[in-house]
Design a protein that fits this description.
By secondary structure, the protein is mainly β. The chain contains five helices and 13 strands. Strands 1, 2, 3, 6, 7, 8, 9, 10, 11, 12 and 13 form an eleven-stranded antiparallel beta sheet that branches. A two-stranded antiparallel sheet has the order 4-5. The longest helix is centred in the last third of the chain and has 10 residues, at 263-272. The model is unreliable at 1-20 and 179-194 (pLDDT under 50).
Length: 277
């Protein structure tokens, strides 16, 4: 990746996994970073999407107050990595998920906001996003509107014993035309602020076994993830302009197939989003 964006360099990345086994030192070399990341996050560059299961808790954090858990979140995602321009890669994520009760884990049809005391309907999600990474692992972002900035990237590969880690960090800020219109309760009126940006910061750590990366390209690589994100209040939370943000804490596992998705989640997704799973 230090040699520039030539077609030869891209070919060496995409075909490297087809060689005999990579040594431990080769796995952590910068030239192989994108290929290693692609086999963990997806199934390799240009390979079919990988299926991930995720679950965790969303916290509410008001400024100068301790965070409090709001609800659970669970879902699955398809992660596909393809070749980008100049030796980079493109990550495409299609994900569907649900917000669930903290205690029971049941998908919620309604939710009472512990900050405002108001009842609201959770907005379960289905999303499709993509991120471009340059040959050196940095996030590539081209915003013609000038309203969004984004940066971050893929970390160097870290190895200890038979365990390998690689991190994916993404930071974004988008200017919004007007603040949310919902009104907070009177006793918290003094904490109001004027929202001017939607901000999101995500930190993801992927973990796999060294020996699983020392297999031919196309071989399934078992992996797990730890994910943390901070972002502006979602509109359906009806937080108005209370200063604060959401904190996401998730874990996840790469699945060999749909049969490994928890049955209740799999059945619900197939009803709500046919042809997704």
């Amino acid at each position: 990746m230090l040699l520039g964006g030539s077609a030869a360099a891209l070919s060496s990345i995409t075909n490297h996994g087809a060689q005999a086994a990579l040594s431990r030192s080769a796995l952590s070399e910068m030239a192989n970073r994108l290929a290693v990341y692609a086999r963990i996050r997806g199934n390799g560059i240009g390979e079919p999407p990988a299926l991930w299961w995720i679950k965790g808790v969303v916290y509410g954090k008001q400024y100068e107050k301790n965070a409090q858990p709001l609800f659970q979140v669970t879902g699955v995602s398809h992660n596909k990595v393809t070749a980008g321009q100049n030796g980079g890669i493109i990550l495409s994520i299609e994900e569907g998920g649900y917000y669930a009760d903290l205690e029971t884990g049941e998908v919620m049809d309604s939710w009472t906001n512990p900050v405002t005391g108001a009842s609201t309907q959770p907005k379960h999600y289905k999303m499709l996003v993509s991120h471009n990474f340059a040959m050196n692992g940095d996030v590539e972002h081209d915003d013609s509107t000038g309203r969004t900035e984004a940066y971050g990237g893929i970390s160097p590969v870290e190895i200890s014993g038979d365990t390998l880690w690689v991190e994916e960090n993404y930071f974004s800020r988008t200017e919004i035309s007007s603040p949310p219109s919902s009104s907070p309760s009177a006793e918290l009126e003094s904490q109001r602020s004027t929202a001017q940006f939607n901000v999101g910061d995500s930190l993801t750590t992927f973990q796999a076994r060294v020996k699983d990366l020392q297999t031919p390209d196309g071989t399934f690589v078992s992996a797990t993830l730890a994910y943390e994100q901070t972002n502006s209040w979602a509109s359906w939370l009806n937080m108005g302009d209370y200063p604060g943000l959401q904190l996401w804490q998730l874990k996840g596992r790469k699945l060999a197939g749909p049969e490994e998705i928890p049955a209740q989640l799999r059945d619900r997704l197939r009803i709500d989003h046919p042809n997704f799973i």
